[in-house]
Predict the 3D structure of the following.
Amino acid sequence: MQLNPIGVIHSPYMQRQDAPRQGRLSDNEITLEVFPQFTAGLKEIDQVSHVIVLYWGDRSDRQTLQSRTPFGPELIGVFASRSPNRPNPIALCVADLVRREGNRLIVRGVDALDGSPLLDIKAYSPAIDSIPTATTGWHTPQEEGQPHGG
């Protein structure tokens, strides 16, 4: 298996403690720079309001298999959580697409550290990607905080 970054993320978050707990909890604008050889893949991206951003958590601890959530002291498996520390630190954020500037997308709702490798961008589909009845069991939706508008 081989992953090839399609770009790089530029953000104000230099260290993990600078980043929000979840990208949707921040109104900061982040830049997704798509490398020139992938720019053709941005055709018509201006037509979508939200994108799914997949990036590599290159500063994550890849040995961690259990962690605590912000909602309690209990340890849970990383596959039952959104911990950035995991064997393959593939991160996912649903972001508001603010605007396109050539090979750069300006977005809101991304918690990536500055310089994180951008793996993929997908159009968000509310009919497919939203599951209003989903549950997690270890916290209530109210504990997640209110995502910003968009």
